[in-house]
Amino acid sequence: MERTLVEDLKGRLNSEVLVKGWVERIRELSSVTFLIIRDRTGRVQVAADPRLCADLKISTESVVEIYGRVNPEPRSKTGYEVVAEQINVLSLAGSLPINVNGPDLNVPLELVLDNRVLSLRHARINPIFRIQAALVHAFQVFLNGEGFVQVFSPKIVASGTEGGTELFALQYFEEKAYLCQSPQFYKQMLVGAGYERVYEVGHVYRAEKHATSRHLNEYVSLDLEMGFIQSEHDVMDLENRLLAFMFSYVNENCQKELVTLGVKVPTVPEIPKIPFADALQLLEKECAKRIEDQDLDPEGERLLSKYVRETTGSEFVFVTDYPWEKRPMYTMPKGSGLTCSFDLLFRGLEITTGGQRIHTHDLLAANIRRKGLDPQAFASYVQNFSLGMPPHGGLAIGLERLTAQLLGLSNVREASLFPRDRHRLTP
Amino acid sequence: MERTLVEDLKGRLNSEVLVKGWVERIRELSSVTFLIIRDRTGRVQVAADPRLCADLKISTESVVEIYGRVNPEPRSKTGYEVVAEQINVLSLAGSLPINVNGPDLNVPLELVLDNRVLSLRHARINPIFRIQAALVHAFQVFLNGEGFVQVFSPKIVASGTEGGTELFALQYFEEKAYLCQSPQFYKQMLVGAGYERVYEVGHVYRAEKHATSRHLNEYVSLDLEMGFIQSEHDVMDLENRLLAFMFSYVNENCQKELVTLGVKVPTVPEIPKIPFADALQLLEKECAKRIEDQDLDPEGERLLSKYVRETTGSEFVFVTDYPWEKRPMYTMPKGSGLTCSFDLLFRGLEITTGGQRIHTHDLLAANIRRKGLDPQAFASYVQNFSLGMPPHGGLAIGLERLTAQLLGLSNVREASLFPRDRHRLTP
Hints:
Two copies of one chain form a homodimer.
Chain A (H helix, E strand, L loop, with lengths): L15 E13 L4 E7 L2 E7 L1 H4 L9 E10 L7 E12 L17 H6 L1 H4 L6 H20 L3 E2 L5 E2 L11 E4 L2 E5 L4 H12 L1 E9 L12 E10 L4 H22 L1 H7 L11 E3 H12 L10 H15 L3 E5 L12 E2 L3 E2 L1 E6 L2 E9 L3 H10 L8 H5 L8 E7 H9 L20
Parallel strand pairs in A: 3-5, 6-10, 12-13
Antiparallel strand pairs in A: 1-2, 1-4, 2-3, 4-5, 7-9, 8-9, 10-11, 11-18, 13-16, 14-15, 16-17, 17-18
Helix pairs in contact in A: 4-6, 4-7, 4-12, 8-9
């Protein structure tokens, strides 16, 4: 007999079925044993004669298969239940370190992550990664439709993208190598290689020593790069449409998950843009927050987001025209001391960095020298810019941050299946 | 004025257009200069008054934008050409180390890879990665449709999947860590975490010292794992349908690229299955090839594939029931000395390894001991199998191998944008 998934049972009333899944709950009455069976599509109540279960020693979270009949049952929430005729245990669960079947999983995050196989079964944790998968799929579908090519660039590299700091080093046979911080150089090379528009979904690595709720040392970067742009505004406009598509895709395809999590996906408006200098003035004037640095700190990001939401209704804001000092050497300069660059804040957190890149050899070489960097270290990269490189720009979205902000998770680790951080290398 | 892509010019006859791209060829006659302009969608002939080009010093592979008019021109292959009214150089190309505009790129593979930005512009190289992207997209679309969830598992791990050999080591803050050889353990954990069906497209790392045309030290693995299977045949049947979908998707979406490469995509039949022991007998009887080992060598794979193609017409063959000695400790044993495992050969090369996995704690623990492995090293993995784990199995397809075999590339490096091998860490 073919297995019937729980979500298909309602169409099989009064039929014989085979249900397979985990035993989420067991309630033994004198004349009947109720089992709640969970599979990847939902949960169903099974009523069994206690004699059927007598010798099976079924424990919570054991995996079983149940032959039975779908009977109308008005007292059940779904209007039916499965009356068991035969139960086979496929895999017995032993004693469980955490209980995953309560309404909330009231254990510290460290235990949630230590017991990942169990915690992911929890009704309020499992949907996080279904929604994350939908975000990624929407990213891919949208960009395919815009003429982008999905690419895979190496994560083992001979040197760092933005200088030698915060790199994980490894021994690559006889040579010293590093884990890639960003596919930046490869994306640009592939634009110049004639693909014009490329995207990559892949891991990047930052050996940052601090441990905050916003940082992971290994995370998934949604990267894109596009040629023949007029300015960084083309990149922002694409991201605006991209996010609108991703959010509406999640809204359409993850209703069950969103309802479970109590999350309402915001509509993505035409996202307001604020030049960095204006943002500083605004923070000082409206929020009594003075920023001396050439970049926003986390509090500044939160206050600015809050102000924009309250005045425009938008949960997103582009901060543009960052000072030259704080942006990497490949960023296109603009006017006096600024750059063609932007960050995107979503609900108080930076989820994207992007901008237009320098596309001519001499300007790039000069900018590297002006930054005080060693031109020799970037020689092979710079060389590509005398092969014919179109004006281009791009961005990177941190997948875990985007997921966490959308779902209201307080720690980015909750949006990573198996996070790697300053103190965690397992499971 | 908005840019018109080359593929859209035919719909703009007698209109003013803006074309942007690379200068693939320059032919200067006394009264007219012809430029072939290439963008991501194709090539077009541009006719320009020599005076328009006089001061521009346009070199081959420079990036230009051309304002002009699409005129009917019966002598052109397309039936039209663009008559230039203004030409702006966006980025001048210097002298080029290789010529990428001949019919074939007659340079050694090492030079092709050293000059990747240029070589990828070649008409016969560029399509490889558009087809590869289509294969990946089809993999993702098919599995989404089958209820699989796309996941991202860590590539920095505390120990190796299959023992401590062939691992790249790195320093992870105070700890020693490794690059992941395979998402095997994570896939299995996620099946057990309730997702039942997961897939991952991600890099894996093998520190293999030998350098052959079939091996990369970093490659993209198309991984999947599925729960509640009856046997490894469920996994093979899924792969059969998956490959049929992927190949037909490429056929429908990459006609232009396939024609350029002269590649005909084979239809995927019901793939024949041959138990390993029968394959050995067959090789000895039909091909005078004797194999003493418990695995096929490359010549054995080629001969068996050839025999199957000649006798059944199939370019694929599943070799099943491999001996216990040669399969990893997590492989489900079968009968006396065999396993529920398979390899898939495509045109003489193994492109998939898969099978059913052990899903019960005690059998797994016993198999690890029987293999002579250290149970302590796998303790945290084995522990998951007392949490309720469904019967499951899965497979991994090497993306570069699949691409190379489909397109008839003789070296797997040709199917990697930026390959990493024994001697190559750049670009």
